[in-house]
Amino acid sequence: MTIDLRYVEDYLCDLALNKVGPIIKTKAGTQSEYDLKTGSRQVDIVTAIDKQVEKLIWDSLKDEFPNFKFVGEEGYIKDVTKITNEPTFIVDPIDGTTNFVHDFPFSCTSMGLTINKVPVVGVIFNPHLNLLISSSKGNGVRVNGEEHDFKSKIQSMGPLIINKSIVALQPGSAREGNNFKTKMKTYENLLSADGGFVHGFRNLGSSAMSLAYIALGYLDSYWDGGCYSWDVCAGWCILNETGGRIVGANPNEWDIPVDNRTYFAVRGTPDSTKKDQEKYIEDFWNNVGGVLKYD
Amino acid sequence: MALTQQELKSIENNIVNLLKEQVGPIIKEQSGQYLTQSYDDKANQVDLVTKSDKNIEFIIKGKLKELYPTFSFIGEEEYVPGETKITNEPTFVVDPIDGTTNFIHGFPYSCCSIGLAENGNPVMGAIFNPHLNQLFHASKGNGAFVNDEPIDVAKRPLSLQKSVIGLEGGADRVDSPGSNFDIKMSTYKNLLSDKGGFIHGFRSLGSAAMNICYTALGIFDGYWEGGCWAWDVCAGWCILKECGGRLIGGNKNDWDIGIDRRVYFAIRGGCTSDEQKKFAEDFWNQTTGDLKY
Questions:
Q1: Structural domain tally of chain B?
Q2: CA nearest B167 in A: which residue?
């Protein structure tokens, strides 16, 4: 069975623009009665809207692609839900839930498709900024339907070097224990004049938007731990299409699966040998102050 | 003789037009354009940005001199530390490009910030981000607007644990015990930790003016900063006040500050002044020392 990836991309764009986006846009900031997840994710806010949007997406995809598998944040069951080689939609109905609750304009919907566990379609829509970014394997990237000229963008950005770069960082919801300590230590190393001395960091509170912003050439990299496959699947495909790369957040994790839980995403460069990208990744890893580990 | 409410509104309208028609297009066009040209030489990069900065400041100053010849003018580019003072006279306080790093990298949060102070207090402010096409503006007693929509901050409780706060790494990165960088990093850790503030989250956009605007909108509950200047906060402060928010010092018990305090804490409106006070005290309790500039 050959799957027309561009058709899937267009279908997801339509779904994002016309069905999911309007709900996210009108409901953001209105959810004062939200639940806080318990346990180590106490700061992770789940809303009824999240569940409602996931159902809407799932129902729509089941009709159109009845044989595809579906993995969504809300339906996910730890140790039970597995990503197989089958075509699988991996969906975060609302990425950036804290943003959504607080009306910070970086909540979005993120919908990806994997085949053989590799992201091959990615669609991210932020209705607050009216930004739709989409791609499918081998078909380039589109921004609001227009072809994204990432090659000239990358040319204009010059070499990728640690102390010239802007890095997306977000502490996430776990605020105790070893992972939290490792993150804080790494941030300090990256910023310090004696360490990576990066040009700056930005925190948008959304993995999908951070990946989208790298693909657009606004950011150079994004380092995180604790996120899930649905946070990165769509962005991964988009980033791949622009020559970017995703590796693990811990040193020497060069090849990782979609559900690795720790990620380091880096933008593309004009260097076709990819040596500068590898050097950047190694230089960055030297600033990681510990090991991120998630069950 | 203080400027009247009508006079302030007329100034606000003129500044809005200046930002929209003359300043915004330049920022939008030049953002992200200097990366390759300047890469080989750091000094060169600073020069290029300064050139854009100076060019925009020159345009603004010229227009303001023409419209308000008697008003004083303080701009980032002309500022002389220790010499330039904000007097009681009506004074425009201008940052031609706020978020310089964003401007260099093309991250869409650079903006122009034009404030007016009278008797040392901000009485008019306008901030334009041409990338997102967001123009925030206000004047004393006349309310605050984003583009042409009045800003109406949703009423809801304010507490530290449920807050999202704007925090930045800043440019000062000297990592020694008791340094400003050290205090910022340990304070961030306290704010996030489940044994400390355990806040919902922090966000970093790399622009003081935009962070204050987002606090004014109520998107951020607070914004804490050390190291910025009068021109980074003057316009935003007026907008924040008109939205029911408050700007106080970033260090403990610094309730009453001047525009050039260098250490700031912005608090959103949409809640009671008692909640704002409690929020400030709870926040200060997480700081690990006084920031000094």
A1: 2
A2: A203
Q: Which residues contact A59 (CB under 8 A, 6 or more apart)?
A: none
Task: Give the whole-angstrom CA distance, residue A221 versus residue A276.
Answer: 13
| B202 touching A (Cβ < 8 Å) | yes
Per-residue pLDDT reduced to its tens digit, B161-178: 999 999 998 888 888 999
In this predicted model, what pLDDT tens digit does every residue of A192-233 receive, in sequence order?
A: 989 999 999 999 999 999 999 999 999 999 999 999 999 999
d(CA B196, CA B283): 10
- Which CATH fold topology does A154-285 show? D-Maltodextrin-Binding Protein; domain 2 (3.40.190)
Instruction: Report whether B223 contacts B240 (CB < 8 A).
Output: no
List all residues 6 or more positions away from B222 whose beta carbon is below 8 Å from its beta carbon.
B163, B165, B166, B215, B265, B266, B267, B268, B279, B283
Residue written as token pair 């791949």: A240
| Cα–Cα distance measured from residue B150 to residue B288, given in angstroms and rounded to the nearest whole number | 38
Contact B169 A204 (CB under 8 A): no
Domain A5-148 falls under CATH 2.170.150.20: no
Is B100 in the same domain as B173?
Answer: no
Annotated ligand binding at A35? The verdict is no
